[in-house]
Amino acid sequence: MKLIAAFLSLFFILGLTACNTIEGAGRDVEAAGGAVEESARENKNY
């Protein structure tokens, strides 16, 4: 029983960590996209 509880605890902790990592990566990609979009606006020739 203790082994199952330990496994489930580890599973949930790793799951929460993965969510935070994915969220951070999403923010980074969004920021990079915003920078590219702003640069495109500044360098438009028409």
TrEMBL record:
Identify the keywords attached in UniProt to this record, alphabetized: Cell membrane, Lipoprotein, Membrane, Palmitate, Signal
What is the residue range of the signal peptide feature? 1-18
User: Which is a Gene Ontology cellular component entry for this protein?
Assistant: membrane
Please give the InterPro entries that the UniProt record associates with this protein: Entericidin
Q: Which GO terms describe its biological process?
A: response to toxic substance
User: Is the Membrane keyword given for this protein?
Assistant: yes
Is Lipoprotein one of the keywords UniProt gives this record?
yes
Spell out the family assignment given in the record's similarity comment: Belongs to the EcnA/EcnB lipoprotein family.
What is the protein name given in its UniProt record?
Answer: Entericidin B membrane lipoprotein
Tell me the organism. Answer: Methylophaga muralis
